[in-house]
Every structure is written in structure tokens, then in C-alpha cells.
Specification:
- This protein is mainly alpha-helical and 161 residues long.
- The protein has helices spanning 2-25, 27-60, 63-79, 83-91, 100-109, 114-129, 133-141, 150-158.
- The protein is elongated.
- It folds into two domains: 2-60; 63-158, Winged helix-like DNA-binding domain superfamily/Winged helix DNA-binding domain (Arc Repressor Mutant, subunit A), CATH 1.10.10.10.
- It contains eight helices and no strands.
- Helices cover 80% and strands 0% of the residues.
- The N and C termini lie far apart (107 Å).
- The longest helix is centred in the N-terminal third of the chain and has 34 residues, at 27-60.
- Residues 30-45, 54-65 have a biased composition (Basic and acidic residues).
């Protein structure tokens, strides 16, 4: 049994040495692969900070600000409102009652064709109330009316059919 133990240990040591030699001989491929892998990882990680920054920026926007933006988009799309009209609706105590900062975030971040909204409002006034171009223009820019900019209102009048 002692002979087996001595041979067994010697055999194990021989196998370890053989493994080290094989690894050393094949090491060129592994080291190249490892360098390639680390280069790939550097490329991957260099893209992640930008993605993380965008995700972090989005995550840092308060929930109420995001809600105000969604509500603003809804008003623009369904009711064809102007930016100023939406801001007033978002902040009104009789409307959405959002804080001014949340409403301003929404207005600053909404992307919409305001001239097209002015045109659709103008068409509605023309068809349902049979108003003159001058009266429609005044209604579109009125602080008590739609609150479109003069440029948006003029676009609407110029494109009424």
C-alpha cells in the first residue's frame, strides 16, 4: 500500500507538471484570446456609460414631471391645444393642478406640430361656428382663447380651406 501511495502521489505530481507544460505550450492561443476578450469587454463597457447616463437621466426625472408630460401630450393630440393653453391647463387648480416646475418640464420636453394644431382649431371654428378669418385669428391668439403664437395662428389662417 505504501508503494501505491508513493506512486499515486508521484503520478499526481507528474500529471500536474504535464498540465502546466501543456498550458504553457498552448498559452499563446489563450493569452491572445484573453487579450481579445478584454478588448471586447472594453468596447462593451465604453458603450454602457452612455446608456447608463441616459437611463440615469430618465430615472432622475420625478414621476410627477413624467405624468405632466404624458398629460400634455394627451391634450396636444386629442384637444389640439397650444403650448400656452396646455401649460395653463396643467397648472390650473381647476385643471390638473401640477406644480409649475412639472408643467414647465412638460412644455420643455413635448415634441409636437403646434402649427398643425392651430390649423385644426381654425378648421373647427370655421366649420362649426362659421367665423371669419379675422375672428378665427383673434380667437387663436387670444389670452382668453386658444393662446397660439401669432406665427402659428397665421399659418392656420393661410392654410384654411
Amino acid at each position: 500500500m505504501k508503494k501505491f501511495f508513493k506512486f499515486g502521489c508521484g503520478g499526481i505530481i507528474a500529471l500536474i507538471i504535464l498540465g502546466v507544460i501543456i498550458a504553457a505550450l498552448g498559452g499563446g492561443d489563450d493569452s491572445t484570446k484573453n487579450k481579445s476578450d478584454s478588448t471586447d469587454k472594453k468596447i462593451e463597457t465604453s458603450a454602457k456609460p452612455q446608456e447608463n447616463a441616459e437611463e440615469s437621466k430618465e430615472a432622475s426625472v420625478p414621476r410627477e414631471y413624467k405624468s405632466a408630460l404624458k398629460k400634455a401630450e394627451s391634450y396636444a393630440k386629442t384637444m389640439k391645444m397650444s403650448k400656452a393653453g396646455i401649460f395653463d391647463q396643467l397648472t390650473s387648480e381647476h385643471g390638473e393642478n401640477f406644480p409649475v416646475e412639472a408643467a414647465q418640464y412638460a412644455i420643455d420636453n413635448i415634441v409636437f406640430d403646434w402649427k398643425e394644431n392651430a390649423l385644426k382649431k381654425a378648421q373647427s371654428y370655421s366649420e362649426t361656428m362659421n367665423m371669419s378669418d379675422s375672428a378665427i385669428y383673434d380667437q387663436l391668439i387670444s389670452e382668453y382663447g386658444e393662446k397660439f403664437t401669432p406665427e402659428e395662428a397665421q399659418y392656420a389662417i393661410d392654410n384654411l380651406k
